[in-house]
Design goal:
This is Helix-turn-helix domain-containing protein. By secondary structure, the chain is mainly alpha-helical. It is built from four helices and no strands.
Length: 105
């Protein structure tokens, strides 16, 4: 059994939009793209679900990827702050050991 052709995502979107606009039927779109009707149906379902989640999420709630990146930025910012403080402590410590003794004056 031959593998179905690989259809680029841009072409899938064009096909789905044509079906949604009523320009072609699912069967006709599948025949033209040389894929199964089930494939076109799946693309249509995925397209509509993606749009639905975008509308539901809206601008009020960041995506899970955005939340993950924000958490990573917070962790890195904290680590940078800790490293900065540690470097300052080391510098102060080194100055105290390398400079003249305060008790020898």
């Amino acid at each position: 059994m031959a593998r179905p052709p690989v259809v680029p995502s841009e072409e899938k979107v064009r096909i789905v939009l044509s079906v949604l606009a009523g320009e072609v039927t699912v069967a006709e779109a599948a025949r033209r793209a040389k894929v199964s009707e089930q494939s076109v149906g799946n693309w249509k379902r995925q397209f509509l679900e993606g749009g639905r989640s975008g509308i539901v999420a809206g601008k009020s709630k960041p995506s899970s990827r955005e939340q993950q990146l924000e958490a990573e930025v917070a962790d890195l910012t904290q680590a940078l702050g800790e490293a900065h403080l540690e470097a300052r402590v080391w510098k102060k410590s080194a100055e105290g050991h390398l400079g003249p003794s305060r008790t020898s004056r």
